[in-house]
Design brief:
It comes from Acidipropionibacterium jensenii. This is Protein of uncharacterized function (DUF3515). Pfam families: DUF3515. By secondary structure, the chain is an alpha+beta fold. The chain has a domain of 106 residues. The chain has three helices and eight strands; from the N terminus they run ααββββββββα. The protein has an eight-stranded antiparallel β-sheet. The longest helix has 28 residues. The chain is globular, with a radius of gyration of 25 Å.
């Protein structure tokens, strides 16, 4: 029995394998970019609230009074009722719905004459105003702690929304 050996089958396999790996790599890269929404940080778009009536008018006043910097971070372009600073972003949304966990006996933390309901999550804290004609929500990632720095910077703008009762 004679064994015949040629170089062709041996060479073809590594070339096909390399080509397949390269194509798979491109497919993964394209998929990741698509899932990240073409954003370098992979950030997802922020849902814009849609308040009506006096809350919408109050939100317009709040949004026009927002500072260029919050907690030392630059403001990014956003929508008419949202704002963000930094990456990961401190996010403000004006005209949100009442938080599910907010009750008559919920704790109210006051920062510079603005009452806040606080929710703690693994990676961030979410603050929602209490005692205003509408709800303003601020989410502060843990990397930007202490969160109170952001609330202090945002208080003058949030006070543009009329108060209906004091923090209790």
């Amino acid at each position: 029995m004679t064994l015949m050996w040629t170089r062709w089958p041996v060479r073809a396999r590594p070339v096909r394998l390399a080509r397949s790996v390269a194509l798979a790599g491109w497919a993964v890269l394209v998929g990741c970019v698509a899932l990240a929404g073409c954003s370098p940080s992979g950030a997802r778009p922020v849902a814009e609230p849609s308040p009506t009536g006096s809350v919408a008018d109050s939100c317009a006043s709040v949004m026009s009074a927002l500072p260029a910097r919050v907690a030392g971070l630059e403001r990014s372009e956003t929508t008419a009722r949202t704002a963000s600073w930094g990456d990961p972003a401190i996010i403000l949304r004006c005209g949100v719905d009442r938080p599910e966990g907010l009750t008559a006996t919920s704790r109210c933390d006051e920062v510079n004459q603005v009452g806040w309901f606080t929710e703690e999550f693994t990676q961030a804290r979410r603050f929602t105003t209490i005692g205003r004609v509408g709800y303003v929500e601020v989410t502060v990632p843990q990397v930007h702690a202490p969160a109170a720095d952001a609330l202090v910077d945002l208080a003058p703008a949030v006070r543009e929304m009329a108060s209906v009762h004091a923090c209790q």
